[in-house]
Amino acid sequence: MATIVDRQNPFKTSLSTKFLWLGLFVYLAYAFSTLDIGWERFMLGLDQGGRLIDRLFPPNFTRWELLLSDLIESLQIAIIASVAGILISLFVGLMAARNMMPNVISIPVRVFIALCRTFHPVIIAILFVKAVGFGALAGILTLTVASIGFVAKLFAEAIEEISFKQVEAIRATGAGFISTILFGVIPQVFSRFIGFSIYQLDSNLRNSTMVGIVGAGGLGGTLFSAFQRFDYDFVTAILLAIIALILVGEALSNLVRRIFQ
Amino acid sequence: MSRLEIRDLNHAYVSNKPILKNINIDINEAGVIAIIGPSGTGKSTLLRCINRLIQPTDGSIIFKNKDVAKIKGKSLREVRRQIGMVFQEYNLVERLSVLENVLTGRLGYMSAWSAWRRNFTDKDIQRAFELLEFVGLSDFAMQRADSLSGGQRQRVGIARALMQEPAILLADEPTSSLDPKTSVEIMELLTQLAQDKGIPTLVNIHDVNLAKRYAQRMIGMSGGEVVYDGKPDGITDTHLKTIYGGESWLQ
Amino acid sequence: MKADALMTPVSNPAESPKWQRFTLGQRSARYMVYLIIVMSFFASLRTVEIIPEFLLDAPEQLADMFRRMWPMDFAAYPTTIHGAMLDTLHIATLGTLLSLILAMPLALMNANNIVKSSWVNWIAKFFLVASRSVNSLIWALLFVAIFGPGVLAGVLAVALRSVGFVGKLFSEALEEVNMGSVEAIRATGASFASVLIKAYWPQAKPAFFSILLFRWDINVRESAVLGLVGAGGIGVVLNDAMNLFQWPKVAMVLTTIFVVVLLIEFIVVQVRKRLM
C-alpha cells in the first residue's frame, strides 16, 4: 500500500470551518427575514434609551419602607426555600443514587428530579401562583422545587462516585442501613454537598428577586409594577437594592465556603 | 460444636461458572488460619460469604447456632457485628478521624438514632483509645484517616475490627498492599491478638512463606476447592504445585 | 511483640499538623454557621406573610389546575405556538451569537496572560460581573422599556445576560493555555493577532465551543420565559393564554417547551460528545 503524502498547508481553513461560516450566514439571513428586528427600530430605541437613562437617575429612595419590606420578603423566600429544598434534596438525592437504591426507587426519583429541572423557575412560579395565590408562599414553593432540581441531581451524582469499599467496611461491622449511610456515605460526600448548597443559596437569593415578576412575592413584583408605571427612578432604586443583596450574598457565601473548606 | 462450620458452600456469580465448589471447613481453635491460593480462586469470595457481604448460592455457614447463609435483617447484623473484618485496601472512611473510624466498629451495637447523634458510650470511647494504643497509634487519634501511611491504616482497620469484640476475625489479603517489612509487622500483630485474645483469625494471603511463618493451620485453595487443610509443616512442594500450578516459581 | 515496636515514625512530620482535623476556631465557626442558618430559617418562617390554609389547599388547587388543562389544545400548536416557539429559538440563538461578539474582547481583556495590565483586567471584570448579576428577566424589562415589546428586546436581554457567563468562562479557558507554545510562536516574531490566532485559539477552541453550547442550552430555557415581560417568543403566548384562562392552551405551551428543552439538551450532549 502506497502512503499518500498529504502536504496541504496545515493552516488553511478546513472545509468544515467554511461550512460553519456559510451556515451561520444563511441562518442569520433567514432569522432576520422572519423576525421583526429592523435597523430603524434599533436606532429609534437608542434614542429612547438615552431619554430612559435620563429618567433612571437619580435613584428615588423615598419609598424606602416598601423597598425594605420587599427586600426582607425576598430574603425570607430565599432562606426558607433553600433550607427546605436542601433538606429534601438530601433524601431525594440519596434515593436517586443508583449505587445505593434499586431501580424501582431510583428511576422514578430521577424522573422527578428531571421534571424539577426542566422548567425555568418562572414557569414553575406561574403554576404555583395559580395554585396557592399571589405572595411569598408561591415563591417559596418555586425555589424549593428549583433547589431540588439542582442540589438533588448533583448530590446523587456525588454519591454515585463514592468509594464503595468504605461502605462495605461499615456494613461488615454489622451497622444498619441508616448507620451505614451516616458513617460510610455521608463523610465521603459531605464537603461537596456543602458546596452545592452554598451555590444554591446564592442562586435562590438571585431568583427570589425575580419570581415576584409573576406575582410570587419579593422585590420582583414591585420592580415589575414600577416598570409598568414608568416609575424609572424607583426602578433604579430597586435595582441598586437587588445588586446590593446579591453582592452581600456572594460575600457571605464566600465566607461560608472558606469556613467549610 | 465448632465456632464456625462451613458446610457444602457453593457460590457462582454467573450460573454454571462456580467460584466456590463444595467448601467444608471447621474453625474451632484460636490463632491464625491462613488461606492460600492463587488470585481468582475464590479466597475473597469465601470470606465475604462468611459475613454475608456476598450471598452464597447454597450451602450453610453455622455460626453461634445460626445459619448465616439464611438469615437477614436484624439477626444478620447481629451476626456481622461479631465477625470482624480487615480489608486489603484497609477501607477506612477516609474523611473521618482515626478515632471515629475505630468507633464505627460499634455501629452494629447502636441504634441509628444514636449513630446520628454520634452518641458513643464513654466505655466505647475509652476502649477505642486503648485499642489505638494497642496498635501503636495513640498519637494519631484525631488525625484524618487519609493522612496515614498504608501500614498505619491497616492497624486502624484492625483496631476497628477489634472494636466489634469479634468472636472471629476475617482478614482479606491484609498485607498485599504493604511493603515486606510492614507486612511482617501486620502479620505479627494479627498473630499476637489471635493468641492473646483467643480469636480465630482467617487470613487470606498469597505469600506462602509469610503464611507458614505465622499460621498454625493452613488451608490451600485451588479452582474454588479446598485442596489442603492442615498443619503448615505438612504442606509440601507437591501441594503447592497443585495449588498454584507450575513449579518454576518454587525455586 | 510490643506495642511500641509497631510504632513506625510519622512519615512526614512537617505535613501532619495540617491534618489536625478541626481547630477549635474552625469548629465554632461551623457551629455559628449552622446556628445562624437555623435561626434565620425560623425567623423567616415566623415573619413571612403566608397563609397556612393556602399551603394545605395547594395540592387540591394544583390537581384542579391540571384537570382543567386536560385535554390539551393541540389545535393551537400550528396556529400560534409553532411560530412563537421558533421565535424563542431565534432569540436564544441570536442572543448567544451577539453575546459572543460582545464577550470576545472582554474575555481577552480579562485574561491576565494576554493583557498584562491589571487596570484593563479590572475594567473587563467589572462588565462581566455586572452582566451576570442582573437577571435576564430584568434585562428584558429594561430593553422592553427602550425598544418596545418584541423579539429585539429578547435578543438583547439574552445577549447582555450571557456576556458575563461566556466571557468569564472563555477567559478562564484562555488563562489555562499552555504558555510554552505561545512563547514559541511569539519567538518567531509573529504579530499580536497571529499569536492570538495560531497560539491561543487552537488550544482554547474546544472549550470555546463547549461554553457556547452550554450557554445556548441555558438560553433556550431562559428565552422561553422572556415573553412574560413582553420580550417576544413563546412566553407571550403563555402569558396571553393564562390571562384568558385558556388552560388547555397553557398545557400545550408547557408541553412544547418541555419537549423542546429536552430536545435541545439531547442535541447539546451529542454535539459535545463529538467535539471532545
Automatic annotation (TrEMBL), chain A:
Q: Which PROSITE patterns match?
A: ABC_TM1 (PS50928)
User: In which domain of life is the source organism classified?
Assistant: Bacteria
Q: What does the entry list under GO cellular component?
A: plasma membrane
One Pfam annotation reads: BPD_transp_1
* Transport listed as a keyword: yes
Q: Where in the cell is it found?
A: Cell membrane
Q: Which InterPro entries match?
A: MetI-like, MetI-like_sf, PhnE/PtxC
GO function term, MF aspect, one: ABC-type phosphonate transporter activity
Coiled-coil regions listed = none
Every copy of the ABC transmembrane type-1 domain together lies at 71-253
Keywords on this record? Cell membrane, Membrane, Transmembrane, Transmembrane helix, Transport
What is the recorded membrane topology of this protein?
A: Multi-pass membrane protein
Q: Which SUPFAM superfamilies did the record assign? A: MetI-like
Q: Which residues cross the membrane?
A: 20-39, 75-97, 109-128, 134-156, 168-190, 234-256
The entry sums up its family as follows:
Belongs to the binding-protein-dependent transport system permease family.
Name-wise, this protein is Phosphonate ABC transporter, permease protein PhnE
Q: Which organism is it from?
A: Nitrincola tibetensis
From TrEMBL, chain B:
Question: How would you describe this protein's topology in the membrane?
Answer: Peripheral membrane protein
Tell me, in one coarse class, where this protein mainly resides: membrane
- Compartments in which it is found: Cell inner membrane
Query: Which GO cellular component terms are attached?
Result: plasma membrane
Q: Which UniProt keywords apply?
A: ATP-binding, Cell membrane, Membrane, Nucleotide-binding, Translocase, Transport
UniProt superkingdom? Bacteria
Q: What Gene3D superfamilies does the database record attribute to this sequence?
A: P-loop containing nucleotide triphosphate hydrolases
Q: Which InterPro entries match?
A: AAA+_ATPase (IPR003593), ABC_transporter-like_ATP-bd (IPR003439), ABC_transporter-like_CS (IPR017871), ABC_transpr_PhnC (IPR012693), MetN_ABC_transporter-like (IPR050086), P-loop_NTPase (IPR027417)
Domain ABC transporter: start-end pairs: 4-248
Q: Which GO terms describe its molecular function?
A: ABC-type phosphonate transporter activity; ATP binding; ATP hydrolysis activity
**Which Pfam families does the record match to this protein?**
ABC_tran
What family is reported?
Answer: Belongs to the ABC transporter superfamily.
> What is the official name of this protein in its record?
Phosphonate ABC transporter ATP-binding protein
Q: Which organism is it from?
A: Nitrincola tibetensis
